[in-house]
Request: fold
Amino acid sequence: MKPTLLIITGIALILWHCTPETIGIAPDQRPVVAAYLVAGQPFAVTVTKQIPFGSDTTGQGQPINGLIIRIKAADQTITLKSAGNGVYRSDAAVLAKAGQTCELSFDYLGQTVTGTTLIPTRPANVQQDLTELIRAAGQIGNGGVGAALAGLSQAVTLTWNNPAADYYYTVVDNIETTLVPILANRNGQAININRRFQTQPTQGSSTQIQALTFSYFGRHRVVLFHLNPDYAALYKQNSTSTQNISTPATTVVNGLGIFTGMNTDTLYINVKAQ
Amino acid sequence: MLLIFPLSGKGQDLAEPKERPIQRPPQPRLPHQTNLTVTGRVVDARSVETLPLASVIVRGTRLLTQTNADGYFTLIGVPNDTCTLLIRYVGYKNQAVALQPGESVKRLTIKMEPTATNLDEVLVKGQQADVMKTGDDVSTIRLTPRNLTKLPNVGERDVFRALQLMPGVSAANESSAGLYVRGGTPDQTLVLYDGFTVYQVDHLYGFFSAFNYNALKDVQLYKGGFGAKYGGRLSGVAELTGKEGNQQRFNAGGDASFLSVNAYVESPLGKKMSVLVAGRRSFQGPLYNKLFNQFQTTSQTPGAGLGNRRNLQTATQQVASYFYDLNGRITFRPTVRDQITLSVYNGRDNLDNSQSTAIAGFGRNGQNTNLGGTLDNTDLSNWGNTGASLKWSRRWSDRLYTNTLVSYSNYFSYRDLANSVSIQLRANSIRNARFGTLERNNLTDRTIKTDIEYRLAANQQLQAGVQFTRNVIDYTYSTNDTTTILEKHNRGQSLAAYVQDDIRLMDNRLLLKPGVRLTNFNVTGQVYTEPRLSATYQLTDRLRLKGAVGRYYQFIKQVTREDISQGNKTFWLLPDKGSLPVGAATHYIAGVAYETPDYLIDVEGYAKDLSGVTEYTLRFAPQVGRGLQPQETFFSGTGTVRGVDVLVQKKVGAYTGWIGYTYAMVLNNIAAYGDKPYYANQDVRHEFKSINTYRYKRFDFAVTFIYASGKPYTSIVGEYSLNLLDGTSKIFTNPSAKNANRFPDYSRLDASATYNFSHGSIGLSAFNLYNRTNVWYKKFNSVSDGTNTQLVVTDITYLGITPNLTFSYRIR
Reply:
């Protein structure tokens, strides 16, 4: 057996077993912006650092204070005031208005971070077919579930005008001071402890709030949000592997996060006991 | 009249004719005829299988030709009938055939003896027992499927895995059997099986290819610069030719390993027909399960509990996973001039990891016991190919040969990953809900083509042909049964015509192959012109210069849908006038081969400039909740490939093998990812392979070593959390620049020992002998304890050390 090839193999291995060049990544210094500009409310922006990637790094994103943050809304430029902990607010009298285009701008580490958004119009022609739902109380483990299932097929349908297929989103809150659970366990505690629930963003002109989704009796506030697409993008399933990594689409340049306007309408639903 | 006159099979070397022990007839051989046209065919001595692309040389002259797809050859201008023909074919002993003065030199049948048929025979100097052969033409590799028994294997002897041992074909892809040829992706290599196109070549998550070596006679891989006869792909062509079946007597055989059983039968049917049927099927032995668990990426979803009543659930797992494939081929020779071949293929993978959980009634102590339900977790992957071709080839004369083929090919893929809940609320009221994703891709290809070969002169052969293909592709990707993310229904047809001239000049030292291919693609309504030119120049007896340049277009695209939680899936689409452009490439190849009787040194440098490179990503998808527009998910740009392949091969003797080294750089430039080019996913900078086989008595030993630089990947540089309007927060990760990092280097050592006996062999193999941990991809998880979050990185690795035992048996 001629060992020539094996010898060459060995030499080649030594020569070629070098690490190929790897482009080192400079730690990404882009700030994270979080701003929901709600029509009728003062402007507020939160700026934090990213949580850097590293096996020894833990912690929440550290707030970035001391920035000079300006928002140009219509022809007016507003300079926000630092409220500490990375939060910046406008004066309480300066309010976002529907139809305004707002432009964010601040300098951070030599880069100008910008963002732009439109405050959407208030949801129009909002209707609800029911203001009241009837649910039976029940207790798991005492045979009451069967009875409690009664009334589950009810739903409140909200409708609104949406000719341009914009995004809408609903958040429902129980606003009672004392919580009375619909379904309880043997100890009388609520099976589902969330007093707030929401629907997925929709581009339709209606949504259904199922009786099944309520956990407590009493008055509920329903906030219908009229959104920009960048907020809806936050709900996109995001993957965390080397094969598919992405950040949601944003208008923020030289930064991460979201700078988006929204408008709301509020309705109420009362859940009564049978 | 048939004349069969093999002289000797041993110890011949075409480069050194003086060593050849030719048995000459005692009387002096005086020529009876001069300036002859010699025709014939080259066949396997045992099965009478014809051997395509065998070299036929007239000794003492520079006259040479190759057999065609049906094993026929025509030599024009042979000086006289005392000449001797030298025939060479990879995996067979070289043959010398002396023409008989005064006898016919038409329709010779030359029988080639496979190497190492006599087990106890000592391989003499000069005898080749190659698994692989390269260096004769520009960027071409020949493989002998029969000799795959000499190489290590994990369960299956695989032709595509073997091709990956050659330089220029990447070997560091355990999760794809497809061929990454010179910086290209698997869809850029045309795979032809008996003339029909195979669109998906993976079995068992790509660990094996879809081709059964028992059904194959010849495999030819063109790594670039291929001629005008082939079109529709940017990087390469793999042409697989099936066996015709034994024309002399019945034969059967098969293999059994820890993974699958594989059997074939072949037989003559009367005097004019032969048939071969081969099939294999995996079984769920320990090796199958190991591979299945290694490559199936879905995270298990256990049956969700309802309160504390877990004890009332019954979970049933319906794992039923297998792959199979079937090959059949009937060859009919109604006359000596005609051959009709029907070849069919059917293969399928069924990977089912579903489970079902029964939820008992909610009622108490027997009340309302009919209130209950089931939670079904469906995790099903099916894919497969069906292909068939009917070929009629005819030698109209010694000079004119035609080959007409009608083919059908279908590829389907079905992926269902879902949870469905069915709850009985009342005796006659059932509520059903389903969450998950469903993906279907179905592709059919109907092709008719005719190839014409006309030998104009001793040194010139003209080839021409036309091809019409109609593709129908449907693709749907939807979630929760209602939201369609992507839906495509493509219909397209292409009409292509080509002409190619093979001309030998300068005393046959220079072989030029100019050609041009024209394709009309009805979707874009354009005609695409592909000029091609390749040349080899025999500088000295040992030194050969090679070069090629050509333009290539691709009218179908395979797109990878990146998805880690469910595993990456690929699907096929047709280009369009908008965001999915027709792919185009220009090849430039230059090389030199130095060949002695014992060694071959082959070096080829290549450059490819590509346009219409497309990536599919949801990264920039701006909206959710509706079907996405193609321009929101498909991004196109350009690419460049630069590289060099080096091969040093020891061809003969008890110890044979080769060292292959590839240096390549693949850059893509797609504006959506940034203004600078980035390294493509398949960019492997250095790839080194060492293949060593040693024959000792009845044993074959083999050691193969593969080293490859790590592939690039996109990492995470940070993460951040946003508070949503409902008060919850969600964590988002911030990716690094596209493919700015590299995985650790890949390396692997495989070894095997095979004992041969007269009717078969027993082989012991070990894959990844030193149990190297090779990274497939990385997974990032964000772990939070309520106040702090931390990123946890997990390496998902390829297969560790895996032994296997293969038993092969054949009647003859």
